[in-house]
Every structure is written in structure tokens, then in C-alpha cells.
Amino acid sequence: MRLTIQKKIGTNTYSFSFEGKDLWEVLVESQKISFHDLSACGLCESNRLALFAYETKEKKFKYIKVSCKACNAGLTLGKSTTGDAYYFRKNEDTKALDWQRAEKE
What we know:
Layout: E1 2-9, E2 12-19, H1 23-30, E3 49-55, E4 62-68, E5 74-79, E6 86-88
Antiparallel strand pairs: 1-2, 3-4, 4-5, 5-6
């Protein structure tokens, strides 16, 4: 059995496909993509967003991030330690999405 879900990040639509032997397995796998659609940057409200993945050179940490092409802000997706689900990181104090301004070089 196969299930395809779509997530919209800014103006881009991303399709994710999941497979399993039955509906239960497919749904469990699809729940690993537990983040919601994101229409605009939390800082400048632009819809020019992109989803991308990268790995750090030194320690080989893997990240998935939403980047705003208008103001260069970023929102990191965290990965749960159990279940491998991905979610948008939130500010611990405000519980709002944790958009970060790009550091100036």
C-alpha cells in the first residue's frame, strides 16, 4: 500500500510518499512528517520559502531547514529522539515557531 501526502512551504509544494503492507503501517510512516504547511516567513511574512537539507562539515550533523529567500531567516526542523518524526522547532518561552535571523558576516 502506498500513500502520498503534500506539504506546502511558501509557494512550493513537496510530495512525500510512504509505503507499508497495510493502511496502519502507511499511516504510521506518514506521521513522521508531522510538520504543518507553512505559508509565510515568521519574520518578514514573505511567501518566498524553500525547504532544504544540509550536513555540517566538522561533526556531520544533519539538518533540515526552511529558508526565507526575502530576508534570509531560517526555521529548523527538529527530529524526535523516538519515532523519527520531524517538527518545526519552537521557542521554549513563547511556544511560537523559532524563526532565526541570519547572522551577519
